[in-house]
Amino acid sequence: MITIQDYINGLKKGKILGSKCKKCGNLMIPPKPVCSKCGSFDVEEVETTGKGVIRSFTVIYVAPEKFEDKAPYVVVLVSLNEGGAVMGRLIGVDPTKPEDIKIGAKVKFKPLIENGEQIVAFEPV
Amino acid sequence: MKSVDLIGIGMTKFGKRPDKTGRDLLAEAMQEAIMSVDKGIDPKKDIKALFVGYFTPTLYEHQAHYGPLSTEWLGLTGIPAFRTESACASGSAALATGYFAVASGIYDLVMVAGVEKMTTLDTPGVTDALSVAADNVFELPTGITFPGLFALMAQEYFEKYGGNWEDLQAVTLKNHYNGSLNPKAQFQAKISDIAQKIAIKKNVTFKDEMDFLKSKYNPMVAYPLRLFDCSPISDGASVAFLASEEISSRFTDKPLRIKGIGISTDTIALSGRADLTTSEACVNASSAAYEMAGITPDDVDIAELHDCFTINEVILSESLGFFKKGEGLKAAMEGRTALSGDKPINTDGGLKSKGHPVGATGIAMVHEIWKQLRGEAGKRQVKGNPKIGLTCNVGGSTASSMVFIFERSEK
Predict the structure, then answer these.
(1) Does B123 reach chain A within 8 Å, measured CB to CB?
(2) I need a surface site. Which of A23, B174, B258, B365 has the fewest CB within 10 A?
(3) In this complex, do A7 and B137 lie within 8 Å of one another by their Cβ atoms?
(4) Which helix (H) or strand (E) holds B147?
(5) Could you tell me if A58 and A110 lie in one domain?
(6) Yes or no, beta carbons of B222 and A59 under 8 Å apart
C-alpha cells in the first residue's frame, strides 16, 4: 500500500510518483492508496516523467512565517503529461514579472531542499 | 424525522476585540441570542445540548476542549457538549450537528455556536494558523497560502471565462457598501470612505475607487489578489437555538424552518480537482439541499455565500446554480447580486466586510438570513418580503461545503 513516505522518498530520488488502480486503470497523481474511482485497494505505484504545463499560478507576497524571507515567490499548479496535477514552486523566473509567466508554458520537475525539507519545484523547459 | 426550527440567534460585533477571549465572546453572543427569542427562553431548563464550532483554538488561545469550557462559562455545566471542527465551516458543522440532534428526536432544543479569537496572533501567525486547513504534504511545503489557493482559482477563472482582477472589484465594492449598513460589521465603510481616510492620512489623492484599489495602499497578497480581495482577521462569536417543530411555538410565532441541508466534501488539495472554477462540493451540497427543500436555485430570495476571497463569491454563485458557468462575474458587475438586484448576495457585507472569525462565520451567515426573512435588517433590508434564504459556508478551499435553506414560517 503506497504511503506518504513512499511519495517523499520518490521526490528525494528525483521522481514524482503516482498510483494506478489495477482493477479499473484509474491514474492518480499525486498517489492515493485507495482508488478514487472504484474504491479498490489493489493499487500500484507508478513513476511520472515530471514534465508538464503550467495550469495556474500565483505569486505569494504575504507568506507563512517560515517562508517570509523567500517572498515574493511563485507557486504553480502543473498538469503533468501523464495526467493529474501537482502543486510546486516555480523557480528560474522573475516573481515580480507575473505577466511573463504563461499558463500553458512547459515546465519540468526539479527536486529542491528548503529549510531541510524536500519540496516540489518546477523550472521552465 | 422531526422538522427543525430556528427560534433565536445572536452574534457579537466582529472585529478586533482585545477585551475578550473566545469564551467571553460566546457569552456576549449567547446573551443576544436569548434576547432574540420572541417569547423568552430559560437556558438552564430549555437547552439540552451544546455544539460549538471553533477551527483552531489550540493555536489562537492554547486551549482545546471547548465543549465543556463553553458549558462551564455559560452556566450550562452538565449538558452534553463538544467542539466541531471543519476548518472555516466549523460553525456550520455545529449547526449541522445540532440539526441532526433535534431532527433525530434525541434532544428537543439545542444551542449551536461558533467562535474564533484570531487577533492574538500577527498576520504571518494567522496565515500559518489558517494554512493547516490545506494539505500538509501536497500543498503547504510549496509555501502556498489560503489567498494563494484562491488566487490559483481566480487565474484559472480568468483564463477560462475571461474577465480580470479589475472586474472582480465589483464584489469588493458591493460587499463593502453592504457592510457600511451593518452595525455588526468589522468594516462599516465603503471603499470610497476607506480611500478618503487614507488619502487624508497619507496626504495623497485618488481619482476614484479603482485608483485606490490599484495603489500601493491595497498591497498584493497573492497575485492577482490584493488586500481588499481578502476577508480580514477578526474576533467574534455567534449563537443560535434550534427547536423541534413540536415545541417551537412555545418560543416564537415567527421561526425559520430549516427546509434543506446539504453537506459534501472535495479533495483538500487543489491538485486533485479537474476544474478550479467550480466547487464540486458546493454543487453536490446545494443539489442535496434543494432536493430536500423541494425548491430550485431560482426560488432562493437571498443568499449568504462564503466570500473569504472575492473570487469565491463568484465561483459559489455559479456552483449553487444562481448563474450559469462563467456568468457569475458578469452578474456581479451588472449589480444583479446587490441589495437591489434580483439575487442579493451577502447583504450583511459578507466575510469580506463583516469580518471572518472563522468558526463564527457559518452561524453569523444564518443571523443575516434571520434578520432579512423577519424584516428586521434595517437600512439593508431587501425589498419584496423575502421568504427563502440560503447559506453556503465552506472549509479550506471548499473541501468542506455546507448548505442550509431556511424558510419563514408564520404560525
Answers:
(1) yes
(2) A23
(3) yes
(4) helix B146-161
(5) yes
(6) yes
Question: How many angstroms separate the CA atoms of B104 and B304, rounded?
Answer: 27
Angle, helix B146-161 to helix B165-179, in steps of 10 degrees: 120
> In Å, what is the CA distance from B134 to each residue of B127, B228, B269?
11, 22, 7
- Is ipTM beyond 0.85? yes
List CB contacts (< 8 A) between B220 and chain A.
Answer: 59, 61, 72
Indicate whether A43 and A55 sit together in one domain.
Answer: no
Phi and psi (nearest 5°) for A123? -130, 150
Task: Give the number of other Cβ atoms within 10 Å of residue B183's Cβ.
Answer: 8
Of the partner residues B123, B142, B147, the one whose CB lies closest to the CB of residue A119: B142
- The CATH number linked to A79 is 2.40.50.840
Residues of B in Cβ contact (< 8 Å) with A73: 143
What residues of chain A lie within 8 A of the CB of B269, using their CB? 30, 87
Yes or no, beta carbons of B143 and A73 under 8 Å apart: yes
Are A32 and A76 part of one and the same domain?
no
- What is the residue whose three cell numbers read 428526536? B105
Helix (H) or strand (E) holding B98: helix B90-103
Q: What is the pLDDT of residue A116?
A: 86
Non-local CB neighbours of A59 within 8 Å, separated by 6+ positions: A72, A73, A74, A75, A95, A96, A98, B220, B222, B223
Domain spanning B4-121+233-250: CATH 3.40.47.10: yes
B235-244 and B109-117 as β-strands: parallel, antiparallel, unpaired? Answer: antiparallel
Residues A42 and A71 in one domain: no
What is the mean pLDDT of each successive set of 10 residues along chain B, which is 411 residues long? 98 97 98 98 98 98 98 98 98 98 98 98 92 95 96 98 98 98 97 97 97 98 98 98 98 98 97 96 98 98 98 98 98 98 98 98 98 98 97 97 94 60
Q: In this complex, is the C-beta atom of B142 within 8 Å of any C-beta atom belonging to chain A?
A: yes
Identify which of B113, B94, B103, B104 has the alpha carbon closest to the alpha carbon of residue B8.
B113
Partners of residue A34 in chain B, C-beta under 8 Å: none
- Same domain, residue pair A28 and A57: no
- Shared domain for A60 and A109, answered yes or no, is yes
**Subunit contact B155:A59, Cβ cutoff 8 A:** no
Instruction: Quote the pLDDT of residue B124.
Output: 87
**Under 8 Å between Cβ of B76 and B43:** yes
Residue of B nearest to A95 (CA): B223
Do residue A68 and residue B124 have CB atoms under 8 angstroms apart? Answer: yes
Q: Do B271 and A65 touch (CB under 8 A)?
A: no
Q: Output Rg (C-alpha) for chain A, integer angstroms.
A: 16
Query: Do residues A28 and A42 both lie within one domain?
Result: yes
Q: Does B274 touch chain A (CB under 8 A)?
A: no
- From the list A61, A87, A98, which residue is nearest B139 (CB)? A87
pLDDT digits (tens, 9 = 90+) for A31-83: 999 999 999 999 999 999 999 999 999 999 999 888 999 999 999 999 999 99
**Measured torsion, CA atoms of residues A27, A32, A36, A38, in degrees rounded to the nearest 10:** 80
Catalytic site positions of B: 88, 356
Answer whether B357's CB lies under 8 Å from B129's CB: no
